[in-house]
Amino acid sequence: MQKTKLTFWQMWNISFGFFGVQIAYSLQNANISRIFATLGADPHSLSFFWILPPLMGLIVQPLVGKYSDRTWTRLGRRIPYLFLGSIIAILVMCMLPNAGNFGLAVGGAMIFGLISLMLLDTSINVAMQPFKMLVGDMVGENQKAQAYSIQSFLCNAGSLVGYVFPFIFAWVGIANTAPEGQVPDTVKYAFYIGAAILILCVLFTTFKVKEMPPKEYADFHGIDTEKKENEKAPSMLTLLKNAPKTFWTVGIVQFFCWAAFLYMWTYTNGAIADTCWGTTDVASEGYQEAGNWVGMMFAVQAIGSMLWALLIPKFKNIRTAYVVSLLVGAVGFASVFFIHDQYLLIASFLLIGAAWAAMLAIPFTLLTNSLSGDHIGTYLGLFNGTICLPQIAAAACGGFILKLVGGAQVSMFLVAGVLLVLGALSVRFVKEK
């Protein structure tokens, strides 16, 4: 079947709901360490709280891919899953920041927060993965780089909005401090508004995007439906063993990249509170101001990522773009260690955004171009293991590495920089189809 080119706005509509999902994800990334530190978590234990999100993604996303490959409803095959995940995420976003408001002891509040975090990340994963699959389903190979770049732009735009909410709310006068063990109203309102935007964006995609019916999908991807009907559906283990080399070689790069960003999400609040505000007291006004500034720096990272995403298509070779992007990000990470002025950090996080732009677009472009349309959802779900496993490993080792580098949270930015350099060196192993 001749693959008709999609217009810019058709590709935009496919990914628009990602804007809302990413707001939820950015609120989680920017505020989880702050929330659990406020509830009473020890800095050396913070990384352990970050094991849950990637662990849930590791379990959930392959299942979403596998079952959505076999699903067909009036709404489509992927959209029902993103809709269900979004509804659950909205409910949990209203609960998580209130973990310290139910009169529970520190241990009880921690358990409530952990359960809420587990549910939030599970639901975000259920809602997020279908957008990557929709591009693989509906966009031809010659447009996938552009389609994933649009998705990357919307992802970063959503991140930008989510990250700046607490800062803006504090600026307009909403309380940025709270009684000991409770989360400030600035964070709570950010989660509430983010939940409202999420449902509006998902509804937009639900009504604007019409997925291909099974026969049209098979024709579009050149799938022999008669042969498929007579074959036994392969297990995920079989598919994994038969995965293209691109799956594994890009996975090596992914390991170093996602471990690096896990450390950024975990330690930025404590790092800049110490280096720029001179405090490690989580109940202090300075620590909470640093928490708001973390959101602003992650927003700067999102801006840097959007700008760099415009440059990536200018590279003649996609692997060269990958290497350069990761090295630029490595410089950004390392520079944070040497900076003690909150405004100079803007330059650091702009550079970090280059690596993030590449991580959002290039791996999925390389992978989906190496796959046939059959089982693409399952493969994308399995590929999520290259995102989740490095985060789990990094989280499990975070406390040990923190002690190894002297105990100062800002030292973890040097570790992150080294990891991105290793990721850039690993790009040479990537095999393209």
Topology:
Blueprint: H1 8-39, H2 46-49, H3 52-69, H4 79-93, H5 106-138, H6 144-171, H7 185-208, H8 214-221, H9 225-230, H10 236-241, H11 245-275, H12 285-311, H13 318-336, H14 345-368, H15 376-383, H16 385-404, H17 412-426
Structural write-up:
The chain has helices at residues 8-39, 46-49, 52-69, 79-93, 106-138, 144-171, 185-208, 214-221, 225-230, 236-241, 245-275, 285-311, 318-336, 345-368, 376-383, 385-404, 412-426. It is globular and about 65 Å long. It has a single domain (13-429), classed as Growth Hormone, Chain: A. The chain starts with 7 loop residues before the first helix and ends in a 7-residue tail after the last helix. Helix 6 runs antiparallel to helix 7 (185-208) and helix 11 (245-275) packs parallel to helix 16. The protein has 433 residues and is mostly helical.
Label this structure with key terms.
433 residues, mainly alpha, Growth Hormone, Chain: A, 73% helix, globular
